[in-house]
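Hi U.,

Before I forget, here's the chain from the pilot set. I'm dumping it here mostly so it's searchable later in email.
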Amino acid sequence: MDAGDLEKLKNGRILVLDSKSDKPGGTVRVQAMAQVPAQAVWDVIVSCEKTFSFVEGLQSCDVIEDSGERALLHQVTKQGWPAPTLDFIYESLREPYRHIRFRLVQGNLKAMEGSWQLIKTPDGLLMDYEIRIKPEVAAPDFLVSRSLRKSSPDMIACIRGLSGGSGSMGLEASDLGRCPGVVRGRQ
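Structure:
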């Protein structure tokens, strides 16, 4: 990461980066800095209840199994016309407070995979999120990537706000204002 990007992150900006994938589908990588311990962010991103606040169009989220280090989750999302309802089960492999790797197990997507990294730095907690999605319906990869590039920064901002990691009341209000779902509190 160059000094300019680090300065932007320290000032609360969310960076949308190109994701390097040779696999088909839309991809995006997003980074933000949070001013909280990793556990605060972790507790938001692994909570089905809080997922309703930061995943646009989430209709249901059910934990099928959760051993702490591995979880199977079932989600249904409806993004609106003309996008179809997405109904899928994914596996989440977790190294608590550091790393999550997730991948599609079954559902009406051709592929979904990605990761979260939570990296403690002298300037705060670097949140690094990457995802690749290949819908079942025919859609050019660049359109899927464009959709991910549009929605992912709001998701990351919302997670930062829900975790209490915005760093200032003004930025927290802005972050929570970017939540696509209903914010039910940070508890």
